[in-house]
Amino acid sequence: MVYERVKTGETSLTRQKTKFVCANCGYESAQWLGRCPLCEQFNTMVEELVAPLESRPKKRSMRAVVDESQPIPSTELKGTVVPRVVSGSAEWDRVLGGGMVPGSTIIVAGEPGVGKSTLLTQVAAQMAQKGHKALYVSGEESPHQLAMRLERLSLIHSDLLVLGERNVLAISNCLQSVYPQIAVIDSIQSVFHPLLTSSPGSVGQVRESAAHLIRIAKESRMGLLFIGHVTKEGYLAGPKVLEHMVDAVLYLEGEATAPVRLLRATKNRFGTTGEVGLFQMTERGLEDLTHPDQWLLSASQEPKIGSAVALIVEGRRPLVAEVQALVASNTWSGCRRVATGVDIGRLLMLIAVLEKHLGCSLSNKDVYVNVVGGLRIRETAIDLPIALAILSSRSDRPLPAGTAFFGEVGLSGEVRPVSQGALRVREGRRLGFRHCIGPTDGTSTVDWTTVADVRQAAEMFHLIGANRTTRRRD
Ligand code: TYD
Ligand code: MG
After folding, report:
1. pTM above 0.70, yes or no
2. CA of 139 to the centre of ligand 2 (A)
3. If you measure from the C-alpha of residue 351 to the centroid of ligand 1, how many angstroms do you get, rounded to a whole number?
4. E-strand spans in 150-290?
5. Which of 79, 136, 275, 448 lies at 20 to 30 Å from 397 by C-alpha?
6. Are 234 and 126 part of one and the same domain?
7. What crossing angle do the helices spanning 465-473 and 383-395 adopt, rounded to 10°?
8. Same domain, 161 and 250
9. Atom 8 (ligand 1): residue with closest C-alpha?
10. 220 and 351 share one domain
11. Residue numbers of the domain that contains 416
């Protein structure tokens, strides 16, 4: 309807204008400028639609709106229990806090190839199977490509509709005529508003297109799921600006080459951000991961040189992961430090601590660190296991079987407390790690072996004494 008017109505097109607004300071200009004249930042001008005069509220109606608005005493307010729409996936529902709230808008972000389209095709199909009409708008793949995936994953259903479209006005026409209960937009970077001159995926296009679709979805209480790509550095390319416009922001993480995927909420207006969902990519699509330890630990739990088991907590979920380190001599070129699944900055800091406080020379060594299963771990409780895995590889001595570690390492080598020690140790023991080692926690009711610094932990397993022998051998 809207699209028709814009396409045929010459006057609407000529009246509707765009402006460029500095994303940093709000300076407005009629043309795009490479550098904002006010804050002097480069590349901050973002194209926006100027609201046409007829869509601005009249003075009289504004008066009525202002008069109607009255505060309510908090004692008269009652918290309403929001009904949830559950999908077939317990992990998806868990991350959203028990299912999707009707009419909510969610963005699912992740690197290309991580499985966003697969996940949301499954969610849309599961909703359709439960009797909710679902629309999947694909701006990246053709409806035929999508149909092939649906067929292969046995997700074909008459209530799941597919639309191959990128024009946001055409999409909103379709939403208003089909009136689905949930709509997936794959992806928000591929959608464009025809009245903006900037290219699809630019900040202005992403913001205007999303705002347009969110307005329609909110008016008709339709659940809206956006897919957004992130860059390798972890930024939502463009739609970072969308985060405040949606109800929930979910990140799908994992290495495209490994099967484990982690879905994490960084914002959730209808639940906590503490829950994480675990999936595995199979030939039947993304399946809930019921036994994460099978993927996050090596098949054999025999003592291995350069391997340490870490007790970590993702959100509120305890997980046991294996960190592997390889320290190799390198006398012919600049030393390499490679971190897969952990922060490289953190690894460099730990290497400096080991060199300075434990006298462990790594200056002529390559150091590689990897987390088994392709999981990315951000919390600092992984520090102690990384440090011990490096020392184990450096000294050619394995850590004993059945032992697991956790704890943050400070700049002077001290092992600092981390939250939820008892939860970590309980999960470790449940999976057969009888000997758990971590920082002291005076309040915990669960016992574990405590260490004050990395040196103490290293001496406990004779990793430093052996280090001297290795150095002589070098
Ligand atoms: P996709 O959902 O297209 O990723 P994104 O939308 O995030 O770019 O899926 C990417 C990968 O998942 C692709 O390399 C193939 C793999 N895959 C499977 O292993 N099994 C499956 O059933 C499907 C649908 C995809
Ligand atoms: Mg995709």
Report:
1. yes
2. 9
3. 36
4. 160-163, 182-186, 223-229, 248-253, 260-268, 276-282, 285-288
5. 448
6. yes
7. 40
8. yes
9. 113
10. no
11. 294-473
